[in-house]
Design a protein that fits this description.
This protein is α/β, with parallel strands linked by helices. It has seven helices and 15 strands.
Amino acid sequence: MTPEVKAFFDEATNTVSYVVKEPEGSACAIIDAVLDYDQAAGRTATTSADEIVAWVEARGLQTHWILESHVHADHLSAAPYLQEQLGGKIGIGEQITVVQDTFGKVFNEGTQFQRDGSQFDRLFREGDVFMIGQLRGEVLHTPGHTPACLTYVIGDAAFVGDTLFMPDFGTARCDFPGGSSAELYRSIQKILALPDDTRIFVGHDYKAPGRSDYAWETTVGEQKALNVHIGQGRSLEEFVEMRDARDATLGMPRLILPSLQVNMRAGQMPEPDEQGDVFLKIPINKI
């Protein structure tokens, strides 16, 4: 099947969110939705998510799934808000428990914070199948950027999160806790083993030098031939050397500290205090 794919680009975080609709019928899934966050003011907004809600409602679609490709470090997830507005189950990879354990310690969350993935409705593992109406989705576990990264192969389309970017921009960083450039290389080989005409939808675009427009759709064949980091059969050793050297030059994402605290909770904020106020933590010298 060839699903209908609608992209929503958030320029503030360079994130692409997707609504994936079965070709015949009204079932859909939403992938990697953004909750707007003003870091200076500590305020959230739902402007980006409301665009998705309006698009889904205008077409009379039924939301079956709200999917996360991984625990994002560059934006807050709008999954709980979308679930409240549209329904659907929130899903992520089963290795979320590893991420929760790692960052539960970083943020000194204590015993109240559950590290078993129970904040999510479904924990996916390699080879799991899920349905969007009559549209079949399959799960590939594609770690390297984070331990919990998934690729969702839905019909003839693969939603790769941060694993791959557009061919002229390359691949994801691997220097977050639990990341591994060697694992990322092996994960990318799973994606490149899909048929060459498989459509690939990336999680971000940063407009590579020389390109005037944002872009987020490519194919397996184009990635194999043209990806500047992994194309043309680059070896594991070459990739690891390149990726590790590049990562050593990168600063942390602007929203990593609020994003991780929220996203490891399936998009929920930390528990409020006795007055009903919510606070995010800023750990010093921990990341």
